[in-house]
Each structure stands twice: as C-alpha cells, then as structure tokens.
Amino acid sequence: MKAIRLQLSRRKGFSLQDTSLAANGLSAVKVARPSKYGNPVIKQDFDELQAIHGELGRPPIEGIWQQHAVKCFDAWIGGKLPELGTPPTCAEIRRDLKGKNLACWCELDDPCHADVLLLVANDAGEAKS
C-alpha cells in the first residue's frame, strides 16, 4: 500500500489509527507540531516576511502561506535553514515514517509539509519513473 496524508481531527470519536487503517491498512504517525516532524514555520513567519517585503518596496510573496511554509520545511530538512534548529535527518525520517500514513492538521487540499515527509520517507533513492 502507498502511504498517504491524513488530516487530524478534534471531532468526538475520531481515532487516527482507525481512520488510517480504514483508508489503506497502514498505521499512522502524527507529524504536526510539536512532534519531532512538525513544521517549525508558522503563519506569523510568513506575515512578517510579507511586511518586510512591503517595507522594502518589494512585491508580495505569491501564493498562500502554506506554500511558503512547505518550501521552507523542504529547505530546512535539506540543511538550508539552520536558524530553524536541527532538522530530522533523511535517515531518521525513513526509519520512523516509511510505510506509514502521516497526519497533520492541514486541510487535505492545502499544501502540507507531510507531503515532503512522505516523499523522503518512501523514496530511498530509487530511480523515479
């Protein structure tokens, strides 16, 4: 089975594992903040960056803030944003998340860092087709 992204819920009776197993038979891991795999980039970071762009007379950053957060997360785990702290390594991601569904609070039709984690966790360097 292919691992997928799931959305966490506070709905009464919601069970992440039951939802995950019903979706494709795989167990799930929460990757939302404050977990080890949560995205350290928040909407306030994007808003502050937009304000700086405005002060400098630059055009606003295009796209919704989640797109920015996912790009920053990808750069962070790639070692390009050390100011965000030490990211999990690709080996850790693969060890802990390979073959598991990943759950975050993001809407399923919005960009989410869990999509980046799914790619890293389930691609051990195989040739892409």
Describe this structure as you would to a colleague.
The chain has 129 residues and is mainly α. The longest helix is centred in the middle third of the chain and has 13 residues, at 43-55. The model has no long low-confidence stretch (mean pLDDT 93). It contains five helices and three strands, in the order βαβαααβα. It has helices spanning 16-24, 43-55, 65-77, 90-97, 113-121, and strands at residues 5-7, 28-30, 101-104. Strands 1-3-2 form a three-stranded parallel beta sheet, with helices on both faces. 24% of the residues are buried.
Instruction: Let me know the largest β-sheet.
Output: 3 strands, parallel
Mean pLDDT, all residues: 93
Instruction: Trace the largest sheet across and list its strands.
Output: 1-3-2
Number of strands: 3
Strand portion: 5-15%
What is the helical fraction, as a range of percent?
40-55%
Chain-wise SSE layout:
Elements: E1 5-7, H1 16-24, E2 28-30, H2 43-55, H3 65-77, H4 90-97, E3 101-104, H5 113-121
Parallel strand pairs: 1-3, 2-3
Brief summary:
The chain has 129 residues and is mainly α. The protein is 40% helix and 8% strand. Helix 4 (90-97) crosses helix 5.
Supply database-style keywords.
129 residues, mainly alpha, 5 helices
